[in-house]
Description:
Blueprint: H1 3-18, H2 25-32, H3 36-42, H4 46-71, H5 75-92, H6 99-104, H7 112-138, H8 149-170, H9 174-188, H10 193-198
Helix pairs in contact: 1-2, 1-4, 2-3, 4-5, 4-7, 5-7, 5-9, 7-8, 8-9
Amino acid sequence: MNRADEIKKVAHALMLQKGYRAFSYADIADVIGIQKASIHYYFPSKDNLVHSVLQDYRRAAADSLRSFEANAKSPREKLDRYFRYWKDKLACEPTDMCLCAMLASEESILPEESRSEIQAHFEEMRAWIQRVLEEAKASGILRSCGGSSEVEAASVLAAVHGGMIATRAYRDAEQFSMVTEYVLERLMGKSGDGERGAGK
């Protein structure tokens, strides 16, 4: 890992712990054991650093979605893999939630470039969930929930982020599991039910 990536990794962790406003270059320097001037060499301002971290985060999220697509056999499994990805991270560290969801609460003080990255991330995640739900509907395994696929996708994303916040508040990953397991069962039934129904 080169120095710039090390700085971004520490900045990411500090933003999850403290938020955008409360972390500083001094915090990063203390963790890594370097001078603040060394950080400014790579990232002239805090805004530059945060924007770069968010760009990396979006790329990593897109890679994860491609992995879910490649390794899942059904729409249900795609959604389940997405949920389990976050369940496993939160089980290891309850504060390790979605960076964009964490920073969205400070939207009013973020620089414009960072706000745009966060909004784009939410749009990409919602669009992916919507495609999965539409695939499930075409396969006959999506239960009728009364809303459009766009509305349902937005609801799923809100539930995921709400589960993350509850996990952080309680420091209990089961809070996330409780929410996402309910969402998956509401949309597609218990494991195996949808697949059996689609084959009738």
